[in-house]
């Protein structure tokens, strides 16, 4: 059987219980992603640690969410697409950019478009970026450091998107309500 268990703070034990209790205290609910990752609580720890590192990047919160959303859509992760669509809206990312990412349309904002183009290239080409792709990214006002910021984002989303591909979580009503 391939079904994974959705844990809650009430059903989890040991480290998983402590981690999920902390997640609930932080968000006010337990996103289903975390409930499934509780099978291996260190996975939640890794995800949370990597996500906290986003605060050290040069990317703004809306840019981070645009990139996180783009990776999630590109990796066909329904849960993370809903979550980062909601968080992008909450962090005031451009509405047209959010819609364009989720619908596969052209992003009007040149800087957002450059960000999404490079994120897709990183994922699609497994980091083997071409000079012209990097040049276009830099021409949009981004730095070499920002390339590594995006690699961090791809790393975060690879962890959560792949975990979600296995567990197939439904989007929490709390996330859907934020859209």
UniProtKB/TrEMBL annotation:
Residues 49-113 form the Carboxymuconolactone decarboxylase-like domain. InterPro entries: AhpD-like (IPR029032), AhpD_core (IPR004675), CMD-like (IPR003779). It holds the Pfam family CMD. It comes from the Bacteria. Gene3D superfamilies: AhpD-like. This is Carboxymuconolactone decarboxylase family protein.
